[in-house]
Amino acid sequence: MITIKTPEEQDKMRVAGRLAAQVLDMIGPHVQAGVATDELDRLCHTYIVDDLGCIPAPLNYRGSGGAAPFPKSICTSVNHVVCHGIPSERVLRNGDIVNVDVTVIKDGYHGDTSRMFFVGAPSIMADRLTKVCFDAMWRGIRAIRPGGHLGDVGHAIQSYVEEQRFSVVREYCGHGIGRVFHEDPQVLHYGRPSTGVELLPGMTLTVEPMVNAGKRDVKLLADGWTVVTKDHSLSAQWEHTVLITDQGFEVLTMSPNGGS
């Protein structure tokens, strides 16, 4: 069921979105060579709970696939990990790229966002892939307007990514969000214009394309969460939570510092 948020609910979504962005601002300087992804999770958990007074939504979250509850407070997806990477003792190394995905709950409402970070200097391919994914996300967001359709968003992303000779993951997508972490509609990152769910003011959803340097095929690891590229190629992802307005859209997870 797709929910239309009231003005009061929209304000709560703005607060949750801003706080989620603050977590990424906080953790950015810590994404360095020699730091374990478990340490990034610990820092984020403490900041989310103690400093922001929020709940980390991923912690103990149960997905729809029957996997064990997610054991950490953030997702850290390194190099060929597409999404839902579980923080661990794995230590970051120079040249790694990592997506940090944060979702917080504040006053019952979710703010969901992710960013790519470079560990040291990235390879030419990693740099280009990350930038193309970032631009693709924004092309999708800019396709959002009341009366438009989700297919417009997917087409804007897919056509650009494939023009750049990369591929879009199809098994995982964006989603509606509000009181519920993952609600309708599904926001596919591929599609045809003027198809799919009509976009209406008051809807809130995530745009979060996953872009692979190689083929689009992915596989789910035995932990039930971690998704990797089948061909071991690099993967990148960016994510924002977006509100559809009467005039167009409002990005709720922009950094208070003006980034992303």
Structure overview:
- Strand 4 (97-106) and strand 5 form a beta hairpin.
- This protein has one domain: Creatinase/methionine aminopeptidase superfamily (Creatine Amidinohydrolase, Alpha-Beta Complex), CATH 3.90.230.10.
- The protein is of the alpha+beta class.
- It contains four helices and 15 strands.
- It starts with 6 loop residues before the first helix and ends in a 9-residue tail after the last strand.
- Helix 1 (7-27) crosses helix 2 (37-51) and helix 3 (124-142) packs antiparallel against helix 4 (150-163).
Quick synopsis:
The protein has helices at 7-27, 37-51, 124-142, 150-163; strands at 55-56, 75-78, 81-83, 97-106, 109-118, 167-168, 174-176, 183-187, 204-207, 210-212, 218-220, 227-229, 235-237, 240-244, 249-251. The chain has 260 residues and is of the alpha+beta class. It has one domain: Creatinase/methionine aminopeptidase superfamily (Creatine Amidinohydrolase).
Question: What does the secondary structure layout of this molecule look like, with pairings?
Answer:
Elements lengths: L6 H21 L9 H15 L3 E2 L18 E4 L2 E3 L13 E10 L2 E10 L5 H19 L7 H14 L3 E2 L5 E3 L6 E5 L16 E4 L2 E3 L5 E3 L6 E3 L5 E3 L2 E5 L4 E3 L9
Antiparallel strand pairs: 1-4, 2-4, 3-12, 4-5, 6-10, 7-8, 9-14, 10-13, 11-12, 14-15
